[in-house]
Amino acid sequence: MTLLAMQRSVIGVLILCSVWICSQALYEDQVGVWDWHQQYIGKVKHAVFQTQGSGRKRVIVATDENAIASLNLRTGEVYWRRVLGNSESIDALDLVSGKYVVSLSNEGSSVRAWHLPDGALVWESLLQPSPGPAASLLVLPIDINHDRSNDLLVFSGSMLFAVSSVDGNIIWKSDLQATRKDLVIKKLSLSSEGLLTGVGFSETSGLVTVDIDTRFGEVSKVTPVGVSKALDTAELILINNVAVALDSDLTTVVTALIKTDQDVKVVETPLADLFSGHVRNSQILQTNLEGAFALRVNDKVLVVKVDSSTGQLSVQEVLEGSVVLSDSLHVVDDKHGVAILQAAEEKSSSGKFSLRVVYADSWDTFAVKESVTLDSHRGSVKKVFLNAYLRTDRSYGFRALVVYEDHSLSLLQQGEIVWTREDGLASIIDTWTSELPLEKDRHAVAEVEHDLADWLKGHWLKLKATLLLASPEELAAVQALRLRSSDKNKMFRDHNGFRKLIIVLTKAGKVLALHTGDGRIVWSLLVPGLRSQSDLATTPLRLLPWQVPHRHALDENPIVLVVGRSDGGHAGTGILSWVDVYQGTELRSLKLNFPVKLVVPLPITDASEEQLHLFIDNEHNAHIFPATEESLALFLEHKANVFFYIVDKEKGKIVGYRIKHMVDNFSRRESDGHVFHTEPVWSIVFPSDSEVISSVVSKDPNEAVHTQSKVLSSRDVLYKYLNKNTIFVATVTPKAAQHIGDATPEEAGLVAYLIDTVTGRVLHRVTHPSVQGPVHAVFNENWVVYHYFNLKTYRHEMSVMEIYDQNRVGDKGVVQLMLGKHNATSPVSSYSLPSVEVKSQSYFFTFSVKAMTVTSTARGITGKHILVGTVGDQLLALDKRFVDPRRTLSPSQEEREEGIIPLTDAIPIFPQSYLTHVHQVEGLRGVLTVPARLESTSLVFAYGLDLFYTRTAPSRIYDSLTEDFSYSLLLITIVALVIAIVVTWILSERKELSEKWK
Amino acid sequence: MAIAKSFRQISTLVLVCLIFTFASANSVTPPKTSSSYAVEGRVKVEGIAAKVPASKTANIKVVLNAGQQVTFIRPDGYFSFQGVAAGTHLLEVVAMGYYFSPVRVDVSARLHGQVRAVAVETRRTLSEALVLEPLREEFYYERREPFSLVGLLKSPMGLMVGFMVVAVFLLPKLMESIDPEEMKRVQEEMRNQPTPSFNSLLQGRS
Q: TM spans, by residue (chain A) (predicted)?
């Protein structure tokens, strides 16, 4: 090996080392010092209790986020949690023989059994259901195949399956539509003699009952039931062999007594007999009550008891207002409890509810009647699950699991809330961060408080820990000390900008503020303006900063704007709500008269620092908010420079618009804003048979760019093309738009575009044959990194495009740049004819990607990390230098100095560069990065079902001492030096003296 | 070196064998369409189970086609996907602490759902009892170097101390070894250009 080659390899190793170091690793004892991780499950829709036996008491829940979780009944913490695939919504959940949790998911097509203590998958079985009504699961009290275990019955669509609970094998299956095509079986019941009866509708004869043999699944008898009236087929209830349905006019309740050996007896009861007053609407509620059913008439709920021998109906109770009934629970002997939760006072915000548990058999004896005060800020109660336990005095006590309007979950026992989980946080749809308030009176100095001995002791322990001399107990003490450091949890701004409020908007229309220090909820607000009324469902859409005070930061609070849509009634009109970020209160709300298609925040603020927003409706009119005269004047000033574009993915079209003149015939209502006409300026239509828009990515309008130029090792200068109005658009062939495996390499292809959104000019276009989506991309400064799947090599790839401005090539050279003899300060205009040079390169990347973003720092000086949410729900920090298009196989000496890494075909993945380290952000959906005030550091918040927050320094922390900097070591060194000086001084003094004596 | 070490650890650890069977061979679940097959496999978890708690191995997921289907492994390591169309697919194993290569899986329609699988990272074809190894075990934390005197001395502060020790104790020794006449000459020169001694500096004498 020649000396030169050796030198090279040494330098290469050094560079690799430096890259390695930059990949921001974490020591194990730093876990939790500045990061936090929270686990959520989502809105609970099914729950079963496991409180029998001596084992740990738990409740198993299934949620809207496709999670199955086992919760500790005493504390509400998660024992285990399994999150199914995105498309696998859970239909039913039950317990079998106290050992297994059985879940039915994916529209009744997959049954899985989970081991109760640890959530391990025991078996799974795929069924082939036919489409039909909601799938249901029934644990039979009998053993069909003699394996000493009760078996399961899965009913989905028209198919009925008997499944062994031991191994998931299908014992038999039966198509109930085999004999009659028009048969729709709604409910099944199993009589005590072991006879299975199905009840449903058919087109020709109305009500039909079907007898099914449980041994072999044969349909033994189909009995049409003659009913004089046509029936409403939406809902059918089966109670103790009595079928209950409404007629098609919704005015009569039809009950049919099904006896296996006799004819079916039909009783018709007009609603007028049950309910005095005019019936506007009526509906049978989907509840499971013993011997009774619930009927909603107008806005009252009637509990109607059914006599199983005569079919006579009698109203037990009329419940008014918002009331929730649980399914009935078998308590003891023939007693069945039902929980009724009702707001104590109508329209009050006190949060007082009355919880009653009644025995369904007699209905008038209360097992429990207590008043509970629930958190009023969680809204109304949506669901109740009841559980009974035996008290020491042999009487029965009840617990109730309550699901609130904001998707949070509480356990009630003896009139108290035992625990509450904030599970709405599992469905975050938008995020923003806000600065904390300024510290008004700076008494922080006086709080250098905690006494010196403690401080010294802490530092002594830290020193020992850094020198690895500490014992495990001492290490634990250090860890506790670090976690306790109250500094990070204070409620005002810090010098480094690490303390912030993360504002999130959840699917339930709740806005929460989380503190970055420890992730605690500072305030939460179920936005009143967005709360769904009984007839008007609303969907929250976006969270936007409305007012960020800088000039009056001490006395004014930031305000966020929540944009929502009302779904019912008026065709999707918009709703706006303004929320104070420090107080957590709604300032005002506004129902718009138009649907909001797009919101464009403008970079203009008025005198009160309210940001101007453009709301585009379906007619492409632009509505300006805030609707003040001042904002109008401001907007008119900037009107010529306002452009926006609308992406229509269905039609494969992107259209750019500009603002024309004001609409004058509008009545000046506040809910309209200032209305302007717009006109299309340009449009790009992608050929629909060969290109489908896969992703459109724009730049963050607030990103900080430190320099417009890039100085090469040859002392040449490249100028970055930094036009903020550039978007990246990726289209794929229609076949390649779906899943991997759908298209062959020949059918697939991706086209990447860079488009100027002001002029519609395509700046660059590149095709990648044989690759397919989904495409994830990140656009920052002058580069785009996008991730896709290559069908030829069958690997994921990441491509990079770096865009350089060729117009400025004339003024090359660092000297000119330094002397200011360049045009770098001239404004970038979309109208100037651009001539861009795009450098690109592709690299293999191992994983599928769920989300992608880039770190952002205060001034953009620090290097960049691309944050990749991988298929394993981890967050990987990838140095941008790995996806540099200028990497070559053997970079020259100068290029290496510049930080160019030798070319490799794949991007290396270091386990230490996972920001989430041992955690997973289950169901990762998005990542938010915010600059800290400290230039080196970027704050990262990843959300999915779980939340994870950390901070990262892409180029290491170069502008402050790290947390583990040992002040005590510094002190000791200084003290040692002083002692050394004194000692040497004395020594030299003596020596001098002895010399003088000579 | 570190990689080689972890390989050794892994070699005892995990073997994933995928056994692919034609769904209709399974009497229980005949496919509705002829091109829908079952893909079954096994992750041999004995090694992992010894290292991480059971609650972690139970959360090992297998992902088909970047999220089209997701399934979990059973305690014995078996997993299966059903209703997989003929064609080429991608399997990814998600196991915290282990790095698995994605696997390209070709399900053949002509050969009744017979399967060929290639680990795409290593480009190795997995033999008919498809064997897939995790490429490495992953450690998410940087390891603290154990306390060592050499390490301390190599730190900037250690180097400074070392230099001072050399200056204080070795330089006088060097002076002694210099020829006395030479020394005298140098001292002569020094006298011509008087510089304050360390001692006088301390006492504030000029």
A: 965-988
CA distance to partner chain A, nearest, from residue B186 (Å): 20
Average pLDDT rounded to a whole number, residues A466-481: 73
Lowest mean pLDDT among A73-87, A460-474, A743-757, B72-86: A460-474
Alpha-carbon distance A743 to nearest alpha carbon in chain B (angstroms): 9
CB-CB neighbors (< 8 A) of B27 in chain A? none
pLDDT of B156 > 90? The answer is: no
Quick check: B55 contacting A, CB < 8 Å? yes
Instruction: Name which of A118, A170, A789 is nearest B28 (Cβ-Cβ).
Output: A170
Are A911 and B138 in contact (CB < 8 Å)? yes
pLDDT above 90 covers what percent of chain B?
A: 0
Which domain range does residue A59 map to? 41-178
Among A122-131, A590-599, A756-765, which is the least confidently predicted range? Answer: A122-131
Confidence of residue A8 (pLDDT cuts 50, 70, 90): very low
Contact A794 B32 (CB under 8 A): no
Residue A82 in any domain: the answer is yes
Chain A within 8 Å of B158 (Cβ-Cβ)? no
In a domain, A357, yes or no: no
Residue A349, pLDDT score = 58
| Residue ranges of B 12-41 with Cβ closer than 8 A to chain A | 28-32, 38
Write the residue in B29, B118, B146 that is nearest to A128 by C-beta.
B29
How close does chain B come to A51, measured CA to CA in Å?
21
What is the per-residue pLDDT for A449? 46
Count of C-beta atoms within a 10 Å radius of residue A553: 15
- pLDDT number for residue A730: 94
User: Does a structural domain hold residue A84?
Assistant: yes
- Is A144 part of a structural domain of the chain? yes
Q: Find, among A428, A430, A401, A398, the residue nearest to A414 by Cα.
A: A398
Q: Which ipTM score applies to this complex? A: 0.81
> Cα(B52)–Cα(A83) distance, rounded to whole angstroms?
20
Query: Is the pLDDT score of A838 beyond 80?
Result: yes
Q: Considering only alpha carbons, which residue of chain B is nearest residue A993?
A: B199
Residue A160's CATH number:
2.40.128.630
Q: Which residues contact A892 (CB under 8 A, 6 or more apart)?
A: A713
Are B80 and B71 in contact by the 8 Å Cβ rule? The answer is yes
Q: What is the average per-residue pLDDT within A924-948? A: 93
Q: How many domains does chain A have?
A: 2
Q: What residues in A contact B83, CB-CB < 8 Å?
A: 126
Nearest CA to CA, how far is A816 from chain B (Å)? 39
Q: CA–CA separation, A48 vs A995, rounded Å? A: 94
DSSP assignment letter at B65: G
Are the C-beta atoms of residues A738 and A700 closer than 8 Å to each other? no
Question: What is the share, in percent, of chain A residues with pLDDT greater than 70?
Answer: 88
Question: Is B68's Cβ below 8 Å from some Cβ in A?
Answer: yes
If pLDDT is split at 50, 70 and 90, which confidence band does A23 have? Answer: very low
- Whether residues B29 and A118 touch (CB distance < 8 A) is answered with no
The model's pLDDT over B136-153, given as tens digits with 9 standing for 90+, comes to: 888 888 877 666 777 777
DSSP per residue, A574-607: EEEEEEETTT--EEEEEE-SS--SEEEEEEEE-T
d(CA A912, CA A922): 19
Q: Show which of A162, A178, A194 is a domain's final residue.
A: A178
Q: What is the pLDDT of residue A2?
A: 40
By Cβ distance, the residue of A82, A848, A988 closest to B92 is A848
Q: Which of A675-684, A973-982, B184-193 is predicted least confidently?
A: B184-193
B92 CB neighbours in chain A (<8 A) are 847-848, 871
Across the interface, do B57 and A120 touch by the CB < 8 Å criterion? yes
List Cα–Cα distances, B111 to A9, B22, B103, in angstroms: 50, 9, 20
Residue-averaged pLDDT of chain A: 83
